[in-house]
Amino acid sequence: xxxxxxxxxxxxxxxxxxxxxxxxxxxxxxxxxxxxxxxxxxxxxxxxxxxxxxxxxxxxxxxxxxxxxxxxxxxxxxxxxxxxxxxxxxxxxxxxxxxxxxxxxxxxxxxxxxxxxxxxxxxxxxxxxxxxxxxxxxxxxxxxxxxxxxxxxxxxxxxxxxxxxxxxxxxxxxxxxxxxxxxxxxxxxxxxxxxxxxxxxxxxxxxxxxxxxxxxxxxxxxxxxxxxxxxxxxxxxxxxxxxxxxxxxxxxxxxxxxxxxxxxxxxx
Length: 268
Prior knowledge:
Blueprint: H1 2-6, H2 8-17, E1 41-49, E2 55-69, E3 72-83, H3 85-91, E4 93-102, E5 108-117, E6 120-129, E7 134-137, E8 140-143, H4 153-158, E9 171-178, E10 181-196, E11 200-209, E12 224-228, E13 235-241, E14 246-255, E15 264-267
Antiparallel strand pairs: 1-2, 1-14, 2-3, 3-4, 4-5, 5-6, 6-7, 7-8, 9-10, 10-11, 11-12, 11-15, 12-13, 13-14
């Protein structure tokens, strides 16, 4: 249980980056935002199961605002994760991730990770220089690949990708910068289907990301994610086995969407 609660926020944040497709491998470098508005808020609930029954263990929220950073207009996107009070008794998690994203091309300018996991605190402040392909973090200077994304900016970048040009089975590579490392990953597009979540029934787009072996995940393509099949491209559900039991993350609330959530077929 401790292994799970320790990673509630990072599970969700790693999951959403799995829909960051083809940024540098196919020339899909730079994009304009047509999917979300400043003021949007999305709530996700994390469920854990070890004996077949899922129980609510924590939640994550994502908010957006329009600000200025070094004289440049940016989207300030914040992701926060926390355990519920019962799970605080086992391992209290209070995680906060922030990304300042260039409104012109959806690339991150600054990323902050400020987490407290069972009293173990981590702070990392990363400034990206996309022109020189470097990232300056609290711990040093690192070389990065082109069109690099962080774990928060990735979600918002991905929501502006046209998935209609992919066919089921396509493997889509991408790079991500996290904890001063570059991760070379991919997702496999699985097509479209209807999915029933704790919130309701949706028309959805389905993916399987490649996971890194050695974390609480087993590695390979064992995680499955679904996003809304409408212009919002909201993450709806994520499921995965972990080292002990399994985890499920469902979208449970939202406000300030740019478009109606037309993928919603019916409420639960």
